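Figure 3 (text version): structure tokens given as input.
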């Protein structure tokens, strides 16, 4: 028992600190953080067993749980429920192309596009945004701006002037600047807009990081996992490495921002990861500061994943966070937050 306890303790330290090492430099180290929940559970079990056996070595799993407490905080929160009537509201949603690619629907009512249009957020950050100028029901920009409330910025990741998809930001406040941080000309990227909110200016990032590209049917049962484990591990490793390089670019861009920052999007990575903790070293997370529960955002077989986030910098305070699990049009649930701008900037 002493040997097992020491091994678990050393393994726990290894997986805990692996979130601070870039997978760009250590290719498979990015897979270690996936074992953090296992380490936490095993240490909790060891504490109980060792206490029952009156073994003084129980102090090791206790220390491991104390060191790993920060991972519990990024996974589960019990912040007070709030319903503020004021504040800057931000919505982030991977719309899954509004499902237009897979349906013949001609009426945009009762679908993801209509839900986004009806949502009252001041700023809407949309990923996998489909824009089709040739089909009236799929002219997403027209539908979302026809009431005259919103300005928009749209970056095409793939497609042409008639039909394309990418990332879009819609704002009730004036957009005074916009730009591209990166894209891979295939399926993801990051853009920013500078928005004038009354007397303040904030920079909003709309982010969609590299996907794992793992089909849900490959992980739906044990047989699928056995047949595909090699390719699954390779895709996990490749995705983790790509996100590490993307988050490095993002971090440098954020550090040079002249304004307070809000960054929303689909990060395609769990809270206990190099991606998450790199961003967390620069920004606060709205779920951690104002959310409740687990906040799972993935709407498929791996339902226990929180991969959609809204981060923010100093000068801004999160006063509410919601995961809209009642909205199941996409393979992601929308998330929204309300903020209070604390400081003025000219």
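Below: residues designed for each position.
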């Amino acid at each position: 028992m002493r040997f097992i306890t020491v091994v678990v303790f050393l393994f726990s330290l290894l997986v805990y600190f692996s979130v601070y090492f870039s997978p760009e430099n250590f290719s498979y180290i990015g897979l270690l953080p996936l074992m953090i929940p296992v380490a936490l559970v095993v240490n909790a079990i060891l504490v109980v067993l060792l206490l029952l056996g009156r073994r003084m070595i129980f102090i090791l799993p206790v220390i491991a749980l104390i060191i790993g407490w920060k991972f519990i905080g990024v996974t589960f929160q019990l912040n007070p429920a709030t319903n503020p009537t004021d504040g800057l509201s931000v919505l982030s949603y991977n719309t899954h192309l509004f499902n237009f690619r897979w349906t013949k629907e001609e009426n945009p009512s009762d679908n993801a596009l209509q839900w986004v249009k009806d949502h009252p957020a001041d700023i809407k950050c949309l990923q996998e945004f489909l824009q089709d100028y040739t089909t009236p029901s799929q002219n997403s920009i027209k539908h979302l701006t026809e009431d005259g409330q919103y300005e928009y910025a749209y970056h095409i990741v793939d497609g042409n002037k008639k039909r394309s998809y990418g990332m879009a930001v819609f704002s009730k406040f004036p957009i005074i600047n916009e730009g591209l941080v990166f894209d891979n000309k295939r399926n993801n990227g990051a853009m920013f807009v500078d928005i004038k909110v009354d007397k303040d200016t904030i920079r909003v990032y709309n982010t969609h990081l590299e996907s794992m590209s793992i089909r849900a049917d490959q992980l739906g049962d044990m047989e699928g996992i056995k047949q595909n484990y090699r390719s699954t591990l390779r895709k996990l490793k490749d995705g983790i490495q790509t996100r590490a390089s993307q988050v490095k670019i993002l971090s440098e861009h954020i550090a040079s921002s002249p304004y307070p920052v809000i960054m929303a999007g689909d990060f395609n990575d769990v809270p206990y990861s190099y991606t998450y903790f790199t961003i967390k070293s620069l920004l606060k997370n709205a779920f951690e500061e104002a959310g409740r529960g687990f906040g799972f955002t993935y709407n498929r077989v791996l339902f226990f994943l929180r991969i959609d986030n809204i981060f923010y910098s100093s000068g801004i305070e999160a006063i509410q966070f919601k995961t809209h699990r009642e909205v199941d049009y996409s393979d992601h649930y929308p998330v929204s937050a309300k903020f209070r701008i604390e400081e003025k900037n000219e």
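Residues 251 and 279 are 7 Å apart (CA to CA).
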